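In this section we walk through a basic example: taking a raw amino acid sequence and producing a predicted 3D structure, encoded as discrete structure tokens. The instruction is simple. Fold the sequence below.
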Amino acid sequence: MNTILETGISLVLIFFIFSIITYVIQELIAVNLKYRSKMLWKSMLQLFDGEKLEGRIKLMQALPSDNTDNTKTFYNHPQILSLKKDLQSKKLPSYIPAANFALAVMNMIAANAPANKDKNYVTQSTTFEDIKAGLETFVNSGGNLYAVLKNLVDTSTTIQDLQQKIEDWFNNYMKRVSAWYESHVVVSVRIIAVALTLIFNINVIRLTKKIYNDSAVRSSLVAMAERIVDKPDAVTQYYTSGFKTISANIDSIYQLQLDADTTAEGKKRILAEKAIVLDSLAANYTQKNSIAMRSLVNQLDSTGLPLGWKNDSLAMQVNGKPGSDKIINILLMLLGWIIGACCISMGAPFWFDMLNKLINVRRTVS
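The resulting token sequence is shown next.
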């Protein structure tokens, strides 16, 4: 009974570790290829200009340039420009605070009021009456922003009330965008899982036999699993504290400084400082997580687990035991890889929860 349980714990540990590595690689891709900022732009494009962006492949494509007038106006508003690393940068922000969104949208709508058509309205205070007047002439361009704002304006009595409602609505909208983002990256997660399975030769059938029959390897893996369960923060931090959280915190800190400094020179200095900090954090994030991946793999390798392709591993899997059928061996190898890739793509939180349960069972029956 203990042998079977310990074999299960060992396999779950392997899936958990490589699920973390999959997540880290996905995060590094997202940070360096600006996936989150692209997703944010496209979600705003749907809201402001009604652009339909269906299919997961859209996340990797270039940003559309047609029918984007309202979206461009929104991104060029000072409240949104202040979120960029610097005013000249073409890089889009990957996070927009609800307050910035609400203030920018209210100002944009108020600028459409007939009395403000010939003014640079972004430099003036927004009034509730201007918003109601501007909403009547706002060109919707196919998005659903008008319907949302019309409902919020009709149910508000003051501009402060309206701003709070817009912020609450935007926060809920961002939750849907986050879910949309996750559905878009699921394909890349599966591709990464397949790649890791082949690179590290994670043939689950072969590994199960090795772990079950080798008590030393099994004991080392179980000991590693217990250390992780006892001190989870050492590993869970790599899939719970993404770069989005880090950059959002930095945006919030520097937004307070931008709001406090009303001079053009001051804002330029603050944005330049913010750019340096974000670039440094991105570099540190990449380095830290690259080191973490190597460390996790080294810990698994130190247990004696047969990972990778050393010692003619492929030939051994294909030939199998003397007298065995090579075709069956190849099919079993492919099946082992498929199981491995599928398990890894299920995600670190799932496997960590499973690891906790199995360790608790083992400690209870011991």
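Looking at the output, two observations stand out. The mean pLDDT is 81. DSSP finds 16 helices and no strands in the chain. In the next section we compare this with other chains.
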